[in-house]
Write the structure tokens for this entry.
Amino acid sequence: MKRGLFITFEGADGCGKTTQLNLLRDYLIDKGYEVIVTREPGGKGLGEKVREILLNYDGVVSDRCESFLFLADRAQNVDIIVNPAVEQGKIVLCDRHTDSTVAYQGYGRGLDIGQINMLNALATKNKKPDLTFVFDVDIDTSMQRVGQNKDRMESAGKDFFNRVRNGYLELAKQEPERIKVVDSTKSIQEVFENVKNIINTYII
Ligand code: TYD
């Protein structure tokens, strides 16, 4: 059976990636593809519990502990959801994946990026996404979209999010074949037109 596709959606909080993921899911289903949607942190089952800790735990969480929790959730998502579906020929859309850890824990928190790459490789069995969208938006716009009701990660401050954004742009420069940056300051429909143009070069 033909292998499917693994597509990831990335960007700073409030960039609009989840909206675009849902639009792309509907578009691909309309075209007759079998589509699976998952997310990190928190695909389903155990992942949901890890997500709850990562976003809502109100005690001290060390940066290294935070990284390992994201990575543990990733290993579970890859083994239980992503790989089996891709092997069955499905298209998997994943809301955040390895690049989030490089951007947030590496560029954002300042952990060693070489080590994060190594741990990501371990969590994913060395398998990279076929395609990654980075939805790029300036920090003021993204903070405005997030609003007042912030979770633990979203409360990290403007400097942190500037580092995260620059991290994503840096990653896109390093891997232009895989990572496509989409200007996400435009309207939802305009952004989706760009997403469609890109995806149409990957599907028949
Ligand atoms: P998410 O649910 O995608 O938040 P949003 O949709 O509001 O952007 O992601 C949860 C948070 O977890 C988000 O702030 C980014 C963060 N995160 C990391 O810091 N490292 C990671 O490896 C992942 C997967 C997410």
